[in-house]
Structure formats: C-alpha cells, structure tokens
Write a structure and sequence with these properties.
It is a single chain. The chain has 560 residues and is an alpha+beta fold. It folds into four domains: 37 residues; 139 residues; 107 residues, Roll (SH3 type barrels); 136 residues, 2-Layer Sandwich (Alpha-Beta Plaits), CATH 3.30.70.100. It contains 14 helices and ten strands. The strands form three sheets. A five-stranded antiparallel beta sheet has the order 4-3-2-1-5, covered by helices on one side. A three-stranded antiparallel beta sheet has the order 6-8-7. Strands 9-10 form a two-stranded antiparallel sheet. Helix 3 runs antiparallel to helix 4 and helix 5 packs antiparallel against helix 6. Pfam families: MS_channel_2nd.
C-alpha cells in the first residue's frame, strides 16, 4: 500500500513538471517573434514623464518668480525705492521725448497735451534722481566738530558725540545689509528668468517679456553693485575717520578722569588737613569762643584752597587767569563795595582778634546804642543778642532782639568790647545825691564800704585777669582795680559816685544790690540826708482860699 502511494505521487509530480516546461517554452517563442513589443509601453511612459517634468519646472520657476516679485513689491529698502524713482524718471523722460517728437510732426490733441504736462510735472518732482539714483546715501556723513574736553562736564558731551558716531555707523551697516540682501534677491530673480528662457515651449511674446525683464534686472543689479562698491569705500573712509575721532575723545576723557582724580585727591587732602587742625583746636583750645572762631578760620582757608585748586586746574593760562581774576575782583569791589568791605572786615576781626564769639560789645548807629553778646561772626556780619542792660532800660526800653551788624562797621564805627581777651569784668558805678549839709565824708565811706564788700570777688578776678594780660599790655600791672569813691558838686546837692568791678554779663544785679544797701544805710544815719525833689506849699489869705497865712508857694527841686 505504501509502494502504490509513492508511485502515484511520482506520477503527479512528473505531470506538473511537464506542464511548467511547456508554458515557459511558449512564452519564450512569443517574445522571440515580437521583439519590440516589450519596450513599447515603457518608451511611451518615458516621453510622457519628460514632458510632465518640463511642464512642472516651468510652473515651479514661475511660482518662484511671482514670490520674488511680491517680495520686492513689499520691500521697504531705501535702495530699491530710490532706484525705482531713478527708473521712473528715465521712463517718464522717454515718454516725454516721444510726445514732443509727435508734437513736431503733428499737433497733439487735448488729451495728449494734458498727458505731456502731467509727465513734465512728474519729471520735475523726480529731477534729483536724474543722474544719481542713490544721492546722499553714498556720501560720507558729515560730523560736527568734536567737543573740546577741558572740564569734567565736557565728558558728557564727548560721550554723547561718540554715541552719535556709533549710531551713524550702525545706520550705515544697516543700509549695507539691506543693499546686500536686495542684490542677492535680484540675482535669484535673474537666475530664474534665465531658467525660464531656456524653455523651448515659450511663445515669442512670452520670451520677449522675460528677456526685457531679465535686461531690467541685470541693469538694476549693475547699478546696485556699483553703488555697493562706492558705499563700501565710503564706509571704510568714514570708519577710519570716526575711529580716529573716537580714539582722540577717549584719550581726552581718560586724561580728564585722571585729572579729576588728582583734583579729588588734592581736595581730600585739604579736607583731611582741615579736619586734623580742627581736632587739634578742639583738643588744645579749651576756650569755646576761641575754638569756634579758629574753626571758622580753618573752614575759610580750606574753602579758599579748594577754590584755588579748581581754578588753576581748569585754567590753561595761569597768568591770564590771575589777570582776569584781578580785573574781575576790581570790578566787583567797586560794584559791591560794602560786601567786599564786610569780607575784609571779617578778616580783620578774625585775624586781629578784636571781637570773638561770646564777647559783649557796644556799637552806636546814629543816635541808637546797642549792647549785646556776640552769637556769630560770619563773612558779612556780626550777630549779637540784645540783652537787658542799663542802656536798654534808659534808652531803648526793649531787649531780646537779634541785631545784625555789617562787618564793615569796624572801619567806620566805634565798637567797644567789654570782654576782650581775658577780661570778663568792667567798671560800674552807683551815684547818690545828698544835701550840702550832710556828712559828706561819712557818706563816701559808707558807699565805699558797701561797694568793697559786694564787689570783692570781681575785684580779685579782675586783678588776676590783668596779671594774665601783662604780656600783651605793658600798663596792666599799674592799674588799680579796687573800688573808688568820688564826690561832685551838683546843682541841688553833693553827688557821691562809687566805682567798683562788676560782671560784664550781669551788671544790673550787683548795681541794684549796692544801690539798695547804700540808700538803706544813708536813711539810718541822721547826719546824711538824701537830696530828692520836694515841694512845699504855703497858703495865704490873699490867695482866695481862706486858709491860715503861710510862706509863699515855694518849690524846690533836687535831681539825682
């Protein structure tokens, strides 16, 4: 059974093999009899494909050309706009020439005449683009004269000028970039037009159109390339000139900064020295008023030194500067005499030391007398505080004012200083008038005793202060500072005048105390009678008052 199956399978295999062999031979014979039939279909397909490719390339180039034209149409390049104006000018000129030539041959109608007039107006508007399409774009930018840096404020002007140059250069770089981009775009357009013209399927009118377009584009490229060459030269020249200007300005800025640094160091040294001197004054001068005045003098000289440093640092011709300062000072001295005299008076006061802050001074202006304590001595005036004094009681009837005295008064008015130098006490007096029949000697002794008792402290202080001043004034050792008493004949009695040392800043207190005690002791003594205004009235019958007779009306007036 197995052998029968194997035989059967072999027969089937042989049958299929024979069938395949017969089929292959049939196909080969058919191909041998028709050799061109195998290539007919592929050849037809290749021709159609080639034609399709040509048509596709034509459409592709046209699309590219349309895109470039649209790009150029909406391009804001100044180069393209100026070249369009240049091209429009020549186009209008050609059209005008044609119309004028026609006018010579025959008369123009109204429409053509209007057209000619319009074209001439357009031509006049575009006249500047006749020969130079790019005009001032190719010219080297004009720059103003570089600023002169002779002071720190000139640095700001120089930096602004450098910024302006950088802005001009950036603008030129931008124009150069726009020009390069425009030329690149036009070169692409030229390549596309050349590719389109290679197509043999174009109509004659299309070829002429594309040829004219190609010619215009090539002319435009030539103009722009020529402009680029000129512009590159202009940029190179301007770049070198601007680099030189910027280098000079930067050098001057650097020098000015260094100069400013040196000036700053000099001013700082002056301030440090002034500060050190003030510290020494504060440490070694314990008198507050003198320390205050000395500090003001140091400030004045410090400011003067700083002013001179700045003056001679920024003046090129020192001799000229000194001469100008001299003439200016003379003119100002005439025009502002009082102010300069006050400044000079301040120098005299400060250097001479006649008045210090804290001194009590007396000054008279016209008929009014002012006594007060010095609060401040500025360059123009002395400020004093009007304290309560005997003068304010008798004459002014007011006190507590701030009085400003110009410093030039030291040259024209008498200024009395009650507390000059080491002195703080002054001579003061109390006057009492007694009748002629009083015991004058006893009255003088009482007054002297009272004054000696109450002024003892101030007498000793004055004696010590005089001893300290003997190196400056030779007479002080012989000055008698003990209380003294005098008597003078007056119209209505004998005036007892006692003199004693009193504190300059508070005279009224001791004066009142001594006067009160003298009066009290005079009233206790029967031999001393104080003379003062009295009135005696005597009535007589003749006077019509019907009173008892008396002496005539008699008035006796005694003044003290």
């Amino acid at each position: 059974m197995n052998s029968a199956n194997i035989v059967k399978q072999n027969k089937i295999f042989h049958f299929f093999a024979c069938f395949l062999l017969v089929f292959c031979l049939t196909v080969q014979i058919s191909l041998t009899q028709n050799p061109d039939s195998a290539t007919n279909i592929p050849r037809t397909t290749q021709a159609e494909t080639k034609n399709n490719r040509a048509t596709h390339n034509e459409y592709s180039n046209q699309e590219k050309l349309n895109r470039i034209d649209a790009q150029l149409k909406y391009n804001d390049s100044i180069w393209l706009k100026r070249y369009d104006n240049f091209r429009n000018y020549h186009h209008i000129s050609n059209e005008i020439s044609i119309l004028e030539k026609t006018n010579l041959e025959s008369t123009l109608n109204s429409q053509e005449s209007h057209r000619l007039e319009t074209l001439k107006k357009q031509q006049s508007l575009l006249e500047q683009y006749r020969s130079k399409p790019f005009g001032e774009l190719l010219d080297k930018p004009l720059l103003n004269e570089p600023p002169i840096i002779n002071n720190p404020f000139g640095i700001f002007g120089a930096l602004s000028f450098i910024k302006h140059i950088s802005s001009v250069r950036d603008n030129m770089q931008k124009n150069k970039y726009d020009l390069d981009q425009l030329i690149t775009t036009l070169e692409k357009k030229s390549e596309i037009l050349q590719a389109i013209l290679k197509d043999n399927h174009l109509a004659i009118s299309q070829k002429n159109h594309y040829k004219n377009s190609l010619e215009d584009v090539q002319n435009e490229i030539l103009e722009l390339q020529s402009a680029r060459n000129i512009f590159e030269t202009t940029m190179d020249v301007f770049g070198k000139d601007s680099d030189e200007i910027i280098a000079n300005l930067e050098m001057h800025i650097k020098n000015q900064i260094l100069k400013l640094g040196y000036i700053g160091i000099g001013i700082l040294i002056s301030i440090v020295i002034a500060f050190a001197l003030k510290m020494l004054v504060k440490r070694y001068i314990h008198h507050h008023e003198r320390a205050y005045t000395t500090s003001k003098v140091i400030n004045f000289f410090n400011i003067t030194v700083i002013f001179l440093i700045l003056l001679f640092a920024y003046i090129d011709n020192a001799t000229y500067a000194v001469a100008m300062v001299g003439f200016a000072s003379a003119g100002l001295a005439i025009a502002m005499k009082d102010m300069f005299m006050s400044t000079l008076g301040w120098l005299v006061i400060v250097v001479g030391g006649s008045v210090h802050v804290g001194d009590r001074i007396r000054i008279k202006k016209e008929n009014e007398v002012f006594i007060g304590d010095v609060l401040d001595i500025s360059m123009l005036r002395i400020t004093i505080y009007d304290d309560i004094t005997l003068t304010s009681y008798r004459d002014n009837h007011r006190a507590g004012r701030l009085i400003f005295i110009p410093n030039n008064y030291i040259f024209t008015h008498l200024i009395a200083n009650y507390t000059h130098g080491d002195l703080s006490n002054i001579w003061d007096s109390v006057e009492v008038c007694v009748t002629f029949d009083s015991n004058i000697t006893k009255a003088k002794n009482i007054a002297l005793e009272v004054a000696t008792t109450h002024a003892k402290l101030y007498t000793e202080q004055t004696r010590m202060q005089m001893q300290r001043m003997r190196d400056r004034f030779s007479f002080v050792h012989s000055v008698n500072v003990n209380p003294r008493v005098f008597n003078f004949i007056k119209e209505n009695g004998m005036e007892i005048s006692v003199w004693f040392q009193n504190y300059a800043y508070g005279t009224l207190h001791l004066k009142s105390l001594i006067a009160q005690e003298i009066i009290e002791k005079y009233l206790q003594d029967e031999n001393i009678h104080i003379a003062y205004p009295i009135t005696r009235i005597v009535y007589q019958s003749q006077d019509g008052l019907s009173k008892q007779p008396s002496d005539l009306l008699n008035s006796q007036y005694h003044t003290t």
